[in-house]
Write a structure and sequence with these properties.
By secondary structure, this protein is an alpha+beta fold. Among the domains are: about 70 residues, no CATH class; about 100 residues, Glutaredoxin (3-Layer(aba) Sandwich). The protein is about 40% helix and about 10% strand. A 5-stranded mixed sheet has the order 2-3-1-4-5, covered by helices on one side. It is globular. The two termini are about 35 Å apart. Bound molecules: FE2/S2 (inorganic) cluster. FE2/S2 (inorganic) cluster binds next to helix 5.
Length: about 250
């Protein structure tokens, strides 16, 4: 016997379309500029989500609706992407996002102690914000997986800029400075912005390209292997021009 289910519409089941008016004409113009970069408009979703975060400090339901409208996608498609990547925040972020690497190399060299120190100082845990989100001096704390800077372990990032070779004491001083409204220079790379400013850059917008991205991005540790190889005359075996490529796995 086939069971019969009855679906009823209740007031709670109604989801009104979010109001996207927070995204003014200038944001919509930026969104159009992003779309123009790609042959397929849907390819613009990742930078578009960063644009949304540069406006709101997170990806809200209105932000999801905005992206869907701009790119002719469903809100389910946008939500699937926004909830997959950790760089898209579902809760409003602080003025600064502090990401402490607690992956293997950093953890072994003190990353866990750094995270613990900052957690105790700020009184918040992973993905939580000390202070009113977006207000000056507010800090969102998160622990991060490998930040691809193991040669500088333990590291942390503020708004994705690197602070290398950290200790709990140095990290605490850094966070206190951020809370006072200071912007200590990262160890390498671009000068420090704030979370929303960094998000605008990730969307591909630079008001002053040179000053926003300028800064040394390499360091002795990173170049050490190449220098040693150079000094000792080590070279990698050449790739033969007629090298056979491995067969592609069969499609199932
Ligand atoms: S483990 Fe921390 S940067 Fe790789």
């Amino acid at each position: 016997m086939t069971e019969q289910f009855e679906f009823t519409s209740t007031e709670n089941a109604v989801h009104p379309t979010p109001d996207t008016s927070v995204f003014g004409e200038n944001v919509r113009a930026d969104a159009r500029r992003i779309v123009e970069r790609y042959p397929e408009s849907r390819s613009a979703l990742l930078p578009m989500l960063h644009l949304v975060q540069s406006v709101q400090g997170h990806v809200s339901q209105a932000g999801i609706q905005f992206c869907a409208d701009q790119l002719a996608l469903s809100t389910a498609e946008v939500s699937a992407v926004a909830t997959f990547y950790t760089m898209y925040k579902r809760k409003p972020c602080g003025q600064h996002l502090v990401s402490v690497c607690t992956n293997t190399m950093c953890a072994a060299l003190g990353g866990d102690a750094i995270y613990r120190t900052l957690r105790e100082h700020l009184g918040v845990g992973h993905d939580e914000t000390a202070g009113p989100p977006g207000e000056p001096g507010s800090i969102t704390l998160e622990h991060a997986e490998c930040l691809a800077a193991c040669d500088f372990a333990p590291v942390l990032q503020v708004n994705y800029e690197f602070y290398d070779n950290q200790t709990p004491e140095r990290a605490l001083e850094l966070v206190k400075a951020l809370q006072r409204g200071e912007k200590p220079a990262p160890t390498r790379g671009a000068p420090l912005s704030d979370f929303r400013g960094a998000e605008r850059q990730l969307a591909g917008f630079f008001d002053d390209l040179e000053s926003e991205v300028e800064g040394p991005s390499q360091a002795t540790e990173t170049l050490r292997g190449a220098q040693l190889a150079n000094e000792r005359g080590w070279t990698a075996p050449a790739m033969p021009d007629d090298a056979e490529l491995p067969p592609l796995p069969e499609r199932k």
